[in-house]
Specification:
With 529 residues, this protein is α+β, with helices and mostly antiparallel strands. It contains 16 helices and 23 strands. It catalyses: tRNA(Tyr) + L-tyrosine + ATP = L-tyrosyl-tRNA(Tyr) + AMP + diphosphate + H(+). GO terms for molecular function: ATP binding; tRNA binding; tyrosine-tRNA ligase activity. Its EC number is 6.1.1.1.
Length: 529
């Protein structure tokens, strides 16, 4: 199809739905002369999820525009990024990625014969490449390397040297894959600008860089392989897809940080050029949209119900996933999936010298807490307790949670109404004077006469359901429910404090969302409970 298009038509197809293109003039020049050579790389870490359909749909666009496309399975990068993929599993992870990505491409009708697949260690361990790594390391400062990887390489309290090498290797890949352009998410931008700055210093050409927007996950933040609730796995069963979509953040009329709407925009429309909202006949019946802007407009006007949107996406998504599930029903691929991603080993009973230690004795770390941003919808007095109030709080689920607290003794109902707050969402629900409290409002407090209490403040622009994490503990899934006898929160709470800069911290590590730090207005040095 690429040969039948003009250079302008190819440019429009290549650049549609991209957030940014660095080197747009160079791109247009190449398209007037020949076909564009481009690569997309993926580190073979966690299992690919449905957000991978976003780059897959763009790869389909590139091929329609006649581009020569290389897909890089970046196994060495997966190891360098805080060892997200253990060395002994690298080969298996590459095989899994290759099988699942090919299955994804086949499910959206992309001919595999036009693609080139390359494994990173096939060329990154060569003498020439290794010498270039040393040459580059003599030019790039520690500051630039750390800054370049800030949004891609896992950030931990004590970073490894390997994470500083990661951005430089990604820059060198452009030269060794002999491409004109690299394609990736906008979270890669700092790595792309590092490549533009330093490759010419090695005598290599500055490349074009094309960036997709980051698609929100089901909880409203970035869709991540390490955050189970934010993603739908490509091999999830239909009932799991339904369950995860049902819990997805999809507030009526809210088009911001809406992962369900974003999937329609960046995957379903580019692939099918239309989207069908399936509705009961009494609500007007099915409606076919041929323009995404109309979908967004109707959703914003609340003419599309979140439940109808989720049900319609569920149907379309399962059509994409069915061929992938079927392919992985074979014994060989089932074995590959379990070998590449073995279940974490469990403690079978501890050391002989400590017979009381059991498999239930797990590390007490803040990633076990399910802390989220919430929005107060309503505040009313508890019917059976003068000092308690009921707050209905939106935490990015289909229904708001009821929280019973005495906060109104310290802050007025008017100040609480519509306020963004921070909640601990995986405590066991507890009845307080006959009404079940389904979460805990996290507040800063200073004891004294009088006692001072303030709700914690999420960063500006936060949305209900945004995940709150502790720096250095971003990965790992929270417990489904914290067991009261284990006192996990109580043990962690001892080290939850407000810093001298009014930032919420655990052991001097900041509590964060994807938009910034959790703060408190005035209670410097306060405890958090």
């Amino acid at each position: 199809m690429g040969e039948q298009l003009s250079s302008d038509e190819k440019f429009q197809l290549i650049s549609r739905n991209l957030q940014e293109v660095l080197g747009e003039d160079r791109l247009q020049e190449i398209l007037k002369e020949r076909e564009l050579r481009i690569y997309w790389g993926t580190a073979t870490t966690g299992k690919p999820h449905v957000a991978y359909f976003v780059p897959m749909s763009k790869i389909a666009d590139f091929l329609k525009a006649g581009c020569e496309v290389t897909i890089l399975f970046a196994d060495l990068h997966a190891f360098l990024d805080n060892m997200k993929a253990p060395w002994e599993l690298l080969e298996l992870r590459v095989k899994y990625y290759e099988q699942v990505i090919k299955a994804m491409l086949e499910s959206i009708g992309v001919p595999l014969g036009k693609l080139k697949f390359v494994k990173g260690t096939d060329f990154q361990l060569s003498r020439e490449y290794t010498l270039d790594v040393y040459r580059l390391s003599s030019m790039v400062t520690e500051h630039d390397a750390k800054k370049a990887g800030a949004e891609v390489v896992k950030q931990v309290e004590h970073p490894l040297l390997s994470g500083l090498l990661y951005p430089g290797l990604q820059a060198l890949d452009e030269e060794y894959l002999k491409v004109d352009a690299q394609f990736g998410g906008v979270d890669q931008r700092k790595i792309f600008t590092l490549a533009e700055k330093y490759l010419p210093s090695l005598g290599y050409t500055k490349r074009i860089h094309m960036m997709n927007p980051m698609v929100p996950g089901l909880t409203g933040g970035k869709m991540s392989s390490s955050e189970e609730e934010s993603k739908i796995d490509l091999l999830d069963k239909t009932q799991d897809v339904k369950k995860k979509l049902k819990k997805a953040f999809c507030e009526p009329g809210n088009v911001e940080n809406n992962g369900v709407l974003s999937f329609v925009k960046h995957v379903l429309f580019p692939l099918h050029s239309e989207f069908v909202i399936k509705r009961d006949p009494k609500w007007g019946g099915d409606k076919v949209y041929t323009d995404y802007e109309e979908v967004e407009k109707d959703f914003a006007a609340e003419q599309i119900h979140p439940g109808d949107l989720k049900a319609s996406v569920e149907v379309a998504l399962n059509k994409l996933l069915d061929p992938i599930r079927k392919k992985f029903e074979t014994p060989e691929l089932k074995k590959l999936a379990t070998s590449a991603y073995p279940e974490p080993s469990k403690n079978k009973g501890g050391a002989k010298g400590n017979p009381k230690q059991t498999a239930d004795d797990e590390e007490i770390v803040p990633s076990r807490l399910d802390i989220r941003v919430g929005k107060v919808i309503s505040v009313e007095k508890h019917p059976d307790a003068d000092s308690l109030y009921l707050e209905k709080i939106d935490v990015g689920e289909d229904q708001p949670r009821t929280v019973v607290s005495g906060l109104v003794a310290y802050i007025s109902e008017e100040e609480l109404q519509d306020r963004l707050v921070v909640l601990l969402c995986n405590l066991k629900p507890q009845k307080m004077r006959g009404i079940e409290s389904q979460a805990m409002l996290l507040c800063a407090s200073i004891e004294g006469e009088p006692r001072k209490v303030e709700p914690l403040d999420p960063p500006e622009g936060s949305a209900p359901g945004d995940r709150v994490y502790t720096e250095g503990y971003e990965s790992g899934n929270p417990d489904e429910e914290l067991k009261p006898k284990k006192k996990v929160f109580e043990k962690l709470q001892v080290d939850l404090k407000i810093s001298g800069e009014f930032v919420a911290q655990w052991k001097e590590q900041n509590l964060m969302t994807k938009l910034g730090k959790i703060t408190c207005k005035t209670l410097k040095g306060g405890n958090i409970s």
